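FORM 7B - TANDEM STRUCTURE REPORT

SECTION 1: FIRST PROTEIN
SEQUENCE AND TOKENS:
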Amino acid sequence: MGKAKILVVDDNEKNVELLEAILQAADFEVLKAYNGKQAIEMAETERPDLLLLDIMMPELDGFQVCEILRKDPRNAGLPVIMVTAKDKESDIVGSLERGADDYVVKPVDKKALLVKIGDMLAKANKNNLPSQLYSRKLEPQQPDKHDE
């Protein structure tokens, strides 16, 4: 298996460059998107191994991107880590409820981010992401045929 592909999504070019430098130094392949629409298109065409997603962006915010990606079964196993300046508990909970797997507050701690990325990639390989476990709990239970 080659380098893991990570899609960095942020409307602030400096934030993208910072994350790109951290990821390239750790030997990841970096893809970049600067808004939510681009992120969804690139997730479809490039099939990244992980997404680092900002919340506050024009057109589609990070919450909307997460919801759209999670509705597509092909993206069920795509780890999503929100990377944002928003640090309220409601933002963190809202992100997780919409399908994010983890949450990192800016400014980013390089070592902590790389540990979280490694953890998410390992969990994705085992179909053990928080979003996957959460969505399984939300699936409607099929009625037992014998009850009819």
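SECTION 2: SECOND PROTEIN
SEQUENCE AND TOKENS:
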Amino acid sequence: MKILLVASDGGHLAQLLPLDDWWGRHDRHWVTFRKPDAVAALEGEQVTWAYHPTTRNLPNALRNLGLAVQTLRRLRPDVVVSTGAGVSLPFFVVARFLRIRTVYIEVFDRVDSPTLTGRLSYPISDAMCSQWPQQRAIYPEAVLIGPTL
């Protein structure tokens, strides 16, 4: 299986890293921001560096949309997995058009309210995962996976 893991740096990336028992068995590629924590955490991994910042930055949102088209066409992963934030949305939109499956994992620290990226990704995700039972009130079809940290 080929996996594309997409996440902002910091806590979003930190919540995907502990899933290495799963993603470590597969052909994988990462998309994140070239920040010191991400560079260190993903040393030796295949990484595409996305454009930062994404919040309220239309030029970078468009650049990341183009990056998503280019990256998804080149890699043709079986699934795109993300914990957010803004960098993941262009990849989910393009994956939907290319009929590539998507899995969104709502973040650990938003127990009783949705993240913006979670709200936008939920309708276009093939699977939504929650880390807390309370998150299923927001995302009724979510699969409870428990905390990743």
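SECTION 3: OBSERVATIONS ON SECOND PROTEIN
The chain has a mean pLDDT of 96.
The longest helix spans residues 58-75.

SECTION 4: SIGNATURE
Preparer initials: ____
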